[in-house]
Amino acid sequence: MSESTISQDRSQQDRSEQELDRLAELAEDVIRRARAAGASQAEVAASINTGLSVNVRLGEVETVEHTRDRGFGLTVYFGQRKGSASTADLHPDSIQATLDQACAIARYTEADPAAGLADAARMATSFPDLDLWHPWDIDTTRAIELGIEIEDAGRAHAGISNSDGASVQAGQGVSVYANSHGFVGRERGTSHSLSLALIAGDEDGMQRDYWYDSVRAAGDFISARALGDKAAERTLARMGARSLSTRQCPVLFVPELARGLIGHLLGAVSGGALYRQASFLLDHVGKPVMPGWLNINERPQLRRGQGSGSFDAEGVATSDSALIDGGVLARYVLGSYSARKLGLESTGNAGGIHNLIVDPGSADHTLDDFAGMLRRMGTGLLVTEVMGQGVSTITGDYSRGAAGFWVENGQIAYPVEEITIAANLREMFAGIVAVGTDVDRRSHILTGSILLERMTVAGE
């Protein structure tokens, strides 16, 4: 790295610290003013996000966007009456108007016994460096060049007939959460991505597919050539897709879709669904919901993790915790409001889950990579795309359009499309056969491919 680049990185770092100081001072001042206006409690979330987004198609620039977004949200409590207001303008007049509006709302709302800040004793006191801040020193010209390089790599493959374009995005943000317990939490992080979508076509039809990469630090990207190659390979592999006759068979979800299955689990064990009694996993803590060999753990302070943080959206300290322990649901996923509604305690998940790690494994203790997962399935359906919203958290019913590949004797035989896969999430979770070692690290849900014992596949 050159001295000029190091100097620029330090300059960006210095500005981020100054912006954090400014947001923290503003948050503390507004909380003091809210208390003076009669609020018994108050909390503020403030942020500044900047970014560059470039899209190119067929070697030409389609869009260039520079963003600088500000956000300021205030919640006040008058006893157990709550009022919230927000603004995207940090000018003093806008902040004062936001404060006045939040107080006015609180004075006229009904009291809610579950309302209020998280418990003061749960506030984070330790703020380790989680290695989340890696500004990408890329200008518009270089971003355009990189997008064209990615697209050229994909379009160079024989059979690729068109492109839906490549995108290059660089982003960074700083945020502060503060409340009247005296807690002030500062966070800063970066998020960068590359993507490419391609089209292949012949006399039998056309197919489209894509690939992308998402990282905290630009140095962690796969190469432009590798991304272009991957997008092209995925697109060309879909050529000649056919449907299937209706059947029941094993189904293997690739890692980027397997995390969606875990997302459905999270939806069913999250506080909002539970206190509304809208979950098929209501009253399931301490009960088996997955095979006994399977473990899922939350690791909120994973260095450079996509979902890392030392405190949640209410300032509650995060810590390592089991969600599924030996197949048993170990806990729910709660912020303080939902916890109070359920007569429980916050799990430090206000604002959502942090890094969730699904341990690879199987009943026979064998660890399989993707090729091994195909061999384990033998004959069945490999799902690489799902469509539609046919998933019910209330009943667990699952029915979605899908595309992918039919697998025979552990080898991909041919692509398939225009099919529907269906089952019930309760049976799907209990019927997990194996989790692969082919972990997709582009998300805060870290899992390999997931093999299910059986689903109904409806086609022709």
From TrEMBL:
Coiled coil: none annotated. Residues 11-20 have a biased composition (Basic and acidic residues). Residues 42-106 form the Metalloprotease TldD/E N-terminal domain. GO terms for molecular function: metallopeptidase activity. Residues 1-20 are annotated as: Disordered. It is an enzyme of class 3 (hydrolase). Residues 134-238 form the Metalloprotease TldD/E central domain. Residues 246-459 form the Metalloprotease TldD/E C-terminal domain. Belongs to the peptidase U62 family. PANTHER family: METALLOPROTEASE PMBA. This is Metalloprotease PmbA. It comes from Rhodanobacter ginsengisoli. The gene is pmbA.
